[in-house]
Amino acid sequence: MNMKKDKGRFSQKHSPDRKIIERVVKAAREKAKDGELTCAQAFDIAKETEVTPEEVGFTADRLEIAISMCQLGLFGYSPVSRIVKPAETVSVELEQAIRASLVDGRLTCASAWEIASRFRMARIRVCAACETLKIRVSQCQLGAF
Q1: Cis before residue 79, ω within 30 degrees of 0?
Q2: Which structural domain range is residue 23 located in?
Q3: Which of 15, 34, 68 is the last residue of a domain?
């Protein structure tokens, strides 16, 4: 999804019958700045309101609030959108962990986070390794991709 091109149409991704949760709406509106929530803010809202990150992403979509600054570096940065670059090297252990977690040849966002935690590294470094290994990341926990 191109945030600039799709701005004002995020809610079209969802059934109009799905209900929003008021406490999530309130938190999203309070934290949003210039029509955007960062990925980190969205996860904070999920924790604070005791809902899933996907619920926060859905709420942001319904409110036409863009998610920015993906913690994997995949989207939401200006002016280039993505900031992740391929890693110069990938350790054998990290490559094995990534490959062992693939689903249909892709690494889920949640798995990238788990691997980063296990290896005690920044999440964007796992994504950088994926770039080097030509592995795509899928299933954003916020529903952005």
Answers
A1: yes
A2: 3-68
A3: 68
Per-residue pLDDT at 15: 81
Assess if residue 145 is contained within a domain.
no
Taking a C-beta distance cutoff of 8 angstroms, is the pair 70, 145 a contact? no
Phi, psi of 26 (to 5 degrees): -60, -50
pLDDT for 12 equals 80
Q: What span, in angstroms and rounded, lies between the C-alpha atoms of 123 and 56? A: 20
The Cα–Cα gap between 70 and 87 comes to: 18
Each as own residue / partner, the long-range contacts of residues 17-20 (CB below 8 Å, 24 or more positions apart, any chain) are: 18/58, 20/58, 20/59, 20/62
Q: What is the dihedral of CA 124, 129, 131, 137, to 10 degrees?
A: -60
Q: Domain count for the chain, please give it.
A: 2
pLDDT per residue as tens digits for the range 22-73 = 999 999 999 999 999 999 999 999 999 999 999 999 999 999 999 999 999 9
Token representation of residue 137: 């990341």
Write down the pLDDT at residue 11.
75
Nearest to 115 by CA among 131, 133, 127: 127
